[in-house]
Design goal:
2 copies of one chain form a homodimer.
Chain A: H1 2-5, H2 8-11, H3 17-44, H4 49-54, H5 58-66, E1 74-75, H6 78-91, H7 97-119, H8 131-148, H9 150-154, H10 163-172, H11 179-205, H12 210-217, H13 220-235, H14 262-293, H15 300-316, E2 323-324, H16 326-334, H17 341-356, H18 366-378, H19 383-392, H20 394-409, H21 412-432, E3 436-441, E4 448-450, E5 462-467, H22 476-489, E6 495-499, H23 508-523, E7 527-531, H24 535-541, H25 546-549, E8 554-555, H26 558-568, H27 574-577
Chain lengths: 578, 578
């Protein structure tokens, strides 16, 4: 029981020098990666840079206690930062204490929600975000984030929470274009983009081993920071309009409870739920992918608690919402992290950086951070999945397209809410007019298939119909109509067999429809039978008095029904005569 | 094409003297029933009595042109009147011109929505109101309406849109109790209640025929109106505090466009949708029931247009929302109405009553109308269906209970919205953790059932698993987890067969899960097969490249899979050895 809620008790017992070494190496590499990212993602969220650092300390330690994934790297990520900016921007002006308070409250609320969902094991809620909606949302968010970086990359203000506002803001402020900023931005972007693909092969061709080459290639962002910071400092470019990070308080975060303002919390509730679910979905899918590679298991419900407590910890230490990020987790995994302790060591690294490194970052140009973000989010944009979805399912494509378009044109909240709503609606619409087939027996077998797709035997007095859906309220009336139409076309029918292998539930609405159908068929001298009714459905039917009223039989298999009804048939069937 | 939109073209061609006579008789009986009801339902809606009459003229004529049901009686009904009161009460004070304007705008908007839904054939939307939610909503509405009548029945103000407000209002205003009003109310209620059950047998025992006795029993409300109106006039009881209907303008409604105020319409949009759908569901189910009795058919999508245009007509002629009422339609049907012309004749009757009868209704006590309403709505309260639902399905019961409780304690809108939301949520929750079964062959057959419920043959190297649900986003991850767990328990497994008779769709999310599962099983040296994949599902899979990647086969039947994989099995199976 205790181990369920504190997975640390599980892995800490087998902790030894070897795992310690692996974890420490991974922690160093992730720390180097996380320093620029934490500053950059704070920029996306519209927050001071130190908030990004704070969100990279306490959450990592807490996740090490409550998380079940051995390789997940928790911390600020791009999409959650964008959601934070969109939400905090609705309640306060960027740069004000209220804005910061809203971001902190958002982390707290989201953490609380995740933890409660974890305690009540409500992880299944995350499943309502379908893959196409998630994929569409991430692509659209990445585009918005990338567009937003043109502010840092050129000096031209790019404001707004959707692409329309951003483009409008950019074109009306073009006079603020700063050539030096743009040069630094373009240079850093080109360098980072190039280093992503070329540095590792280059280092390997220089004779470095796989592992060292890999580590070396991860130094590119730090190198770009060092070089551009040096340039700004040396030439005094900050005097020429190049925006720099400036003063970052070089002290550790202080613990503080978030402001409890009921009005604010009410306003943040829905966005907090969105951040929670989007963040959780990303966290769980990264964690599951990595766990499967080492034949480990994660507990999705405990992950809710891990991520929830991490967010509460972030809020209490002045940070903003965190999730399990994809790219850093992969780096952590590949660098050899064996346990969540690697995350705790990373936290120590960030804490040291906060205290000792921040004075060096005064002249760090924001354009470099913008380049870091741009290169990171471009890898999130995935047009291939859009094409695949279009080919496979128009309904899924519609949900994805709605998510992308509304995210780009209205905003992140409208995008994801409409994507989820549309995917639910399309599902319900589909099941409200389910597929059905009139079936016959495949000759020489006991197997029954659609008479339109297969050459099958049928009995002219028996209509066997297979409804390919659970019978429940959206389609309750459809079934009645379908059987009516089928009977109108076949006046010789004396028996109707509902073949139910695809009927996973019959709810109260459908039961009433079946009762009405049974009564009406009885008036017309037609018996209603059912075959292949599943155990759980049968259990439930036995609790009603439908089975007493049913004019026909319940057959274990469709073949039993076919044989039995054919034998009772007064006239020889064409198949038997043939 | 023209006949689809104008069903009158269909039935008017075969119209003759015989159908005319039947329709006229039915119209007279329905008119007598409708005069007190139209006044009473206007009272429920908080509107002047003439609005009830107006809503009983134009809509009936228009439905005769556009409606497909031959016996449906359109007009004011109790539940829609309650919804009107709840909505109009939110935007204006009862008794003001703004309140009336809101009620009229509501009818117009609702009519517009229904008509548009009809043109786009969106009748399936009504299916999302499950039977338990509808039944719960009608019972709770009837209780609120009945409670509200204590104002008319006792003189004590009963205000508010939920039971709590009503009871509070009643107990704090008890000093306004009027003994004479209460006496008239109690007397009329007792008489109407008694006459419902006793008058018909009484008249039959006096030697009247079935039909005449039936007609006679329908005179009771008119008789109670005549007697109590006479009493009030004769003794001058209106001077003693008995509320009377008073002046009703004895002229026909004038045509007028409803006020177009964008703000008002925005506010009324959601309630108008609710009234539309609730009214439509009642209309269609009454119409279908009556049509089935005479082997006629109705067109549910055209009914949207019929009801929609009727509501637009109501609004243009100063009326409020109308629907197809259950009790009047049954009376119309039993009185022998053959075509919708009976409705048009009823409209003529109401128009005549409006012009010539209204002066006689000055002294009609509201207590009598209250009694008419009370007796009418008590028959809508159905506790039996609550008990049945509890026994049959806890999920449906939960949706019903939420609808009833929230309707009673918060209001009609909250009640029905939460009922629909909860029934959708519970459905999704159920399908997100679907039932599944590991299956084996029933000996001597080709039929496969759950190994836990039946004595079946299995093959130790093959895991055959039947998922009893479509594979789609809410359960995409569940399938992976389930198969993982099953494999962990059976290390000897070399083949996994997904038996898919219950899989009616595989969406993009589930396809990605299957691809991931296939890849992981491949790593472990296990082949993944599928059997009994339905035609439409197979068609779609062929559009992806999943089938190329699949390590195993697609079998037409589970038996084919079982035989084929057993043959390839290197060791004899226990069943074969037995």
């Amino acid at each position: 029981m205790l181990k369920r809620y504190f997975p640390i008790l599980e892995w800490s017992r087998e902790y030894n020098r070897e795992t310690l070494t692996s974890d420490l190496i991974a922690a160093v590499i992730v720390t180097i990666m996380l320093i620029p990212q934490s500053l950059a993602y704070a920029l996306i969220a519209g927050l001071p840079p130190e908030v990004g650092l704070y969100a990279s300390i306490a959450p990592l330690v807490i996740y090490a206690i409550f998380g079940t994934s051995r390789a997940l790297a928790v911390g600020p990520v791009a999409v959650a930062s964008l959601l934070t900016a969109a939400t905090a921007g609705q309640v306060a002006q960027q740069g004000t204490p209220e804005y910061l308070a809203a971001a902190i409250a958002l982390a707290f609320l989201s953490g609380l929600m995740l933890t409660v969902m974890g305690i009540f094991r409500l992880g299944f809620l995350a499943n309502f975000l379908s893959h196409p909606v998630i994929a569409g949302f991430i692509t659209a968010s990445a585009i918005i984030i990338a567009a937003g970086q043109f502010k840092n990359l050129t000096g031209v203000p790019v404001q707004g929470h959707n692409l329309r506002e951003q483009i409008h803001s950019f074109v009306t402020n073009l006079d603020k274009f700063n050539v030096i900023t743009a040069a630094i931005g373009a240079g850093a972007t080109a360098f980072l983009y190039w280093s992503r693909r070329k540095v590792k092969p280059l280092l390997k061709s220089l004779g470095l081993g796989e592992k060292l080459a890999d580590t070396g290639s991860r130094m590119a962002p730090i190198l770009s920071i060092a070089v551009t910071t040096g340039l700004v400092w040396f030439f005094g470019l900050d005097q020429a309009g190049v925006a720099v990070v400036g003063d970052i308080p070089n002290k550790l975060p202080e613990l503080a409870l978030p402001d409890f303002k009921p009005d604010l919390w009410m306003e943040l509730a829905v966005p907090a739920l969105l951040i929670s679910i989007v963040g959780y979905v990303e966290t769980v899918s990264v964690a599951q992918t990595l766990a499967a590679k080492r034949r480990q298991r994660i507990d999705p419900d405990q992950e809710l608690i891990g991520l929830g407590t991490a967010n509460i910890g972030s809020a209490l230490s002045g940070g903003f919402p965190v999730t399990g990020g994809f790219s850093r987790s992969v780096v952590n995994f590949e660098a050899g992290a064996q346990t969540p302790a690697a995350g705790a060591f990373t936290a120590v690294g960030i804490a040291l950086a906060t205290v000792f490194l921040t004075p060096l970052l005064f002249f760090l140009p924001k354009a470099t951070l913008g380049a870091t973000i741009l290169v990171a989010v471009l890898s999130l944009i995935d047009f291939k999945v859009i094409r695949h979805t279009w080919h496979y399912s128009r309904a899924d494509f519609a949900a994805m397209a709605a998510t992308i378009l509304l995210t780009l044109l209205v905003g992140v909240e409208a995008g994801i809410v409409s994507g989820v709503a549309l995917s639910l609606f399309l599902h319900l619409q589909r099941t409200s007019k389910p597929h059905y087939a009139i079936v016959g027996r495949v000759p020489g077998t006991e197997h029954f298939r659609n008479i339109l797709r297969h050459d099958v035997e049928t009995d002219p007095q028996t209509l066997s119909i297979r409804i390919d859906e659970s019978l429940y309220f959206p389609n309750a009336r459809f079934i009645e109509d379908t059987i009516n139409d089928a009977l109108a076309a076949n006046p010789a029918i004396r028996n109707v067999v509902l073949m139910c292998p695809a009927v996973n539930v019959i709810d109260t609405s459908a039961l009433e429809s079946l009762e009405a159908l049974n009564a009406r068929l009885k008036d017309e001298g037609i018996r209603l039978h059912m075959s292949e009714v599943k155990g759980p459905v049968m259990d439930r039917l036995e609790r009603s008095d439908f089975l007493n009223k049913l004019t026909g039989n319940i057959y274990l298999s469709q073949n039993d029904a076919f044989e039995d009804l054919r034998e009772k048939s007064p006239t020889p069937t064409p198949v038997a005569a043939a």
